Amino acid sequence: MKQANAQIHIENLRLRTFIGFNESEKKNKQDVVINAWIDYPAVEASQTDDVNKAVNYRTICKEIIHHVETNSFLLLERLTSDVLTLCMKPSNVCSVKVKVEKPHALRFADSVSLTLSATKDTD
């Protein structure tokens, strides 16, 4: 039986960072909520129970936390793109989708979010 790709979901990672271009946004950290879906072929990992064949989601999460909390961003697009790049780093990752939410960015909305996705070329 051929197995489909595995999907890791880092769900609702809540961090604080400088995000936005208004003066108050540049001076005060704001909440962001990050979701990432990371696809990779898990046949070897699931058959061998070898951690070296899996994607280390803890390492990815630590890199995201460090990057988001130690940098500032004018746009959600940049922040989301940076998180996407971090998730794509492991060689066995084949595709990623990242959604970053900025809660209470608009007066009558729960949040504003941006989603980006990428797939590695297999050529």
From TrEMBL:
Domain of life: Bacteria
UniProt KW keywords: Isomerase
Annotated Dihydroneopterin aldolase/epimerase domain residues: 8-118
EC number, UniProt record: 5.1.99.7
SMART domains, per the entry: FolB
UniProt-listed InterPro entries: Dihydroneopterin_aldolase (IPR006156), FolB_dom (IPR006157), GTP-CH-I_C/QueF (IPR043133)
SUPFAM superfamilies: Tetrahydrobiopterin biosynthesis enzymes-like (SSF55620)
GO CC entries: cytosol
Enzyme class: isomerase
A Pfam family reported for this protein in Swiss-Prot or TrEMBL: FolB
Molecular function GO terms recorded: dihydroneopterin aldolase activity; dihydroneopterin triphosphate 2'-epimerase activity
Coiled coil stretches, renumbered: none
Catalysed reactions, semicolon-separated: 7,8-dihydroneopterin 3'-triphosphate = 7,8-dihydromonapterin 3'-triphosphate
Any one GO BP annotation for this protein: folic acid-containing compound metabolic process
Family: Belongs to the DHNA family.
Name assigned to this protein: Dihydroneopterin triphosphate 2'-epimerase
Gene: folX
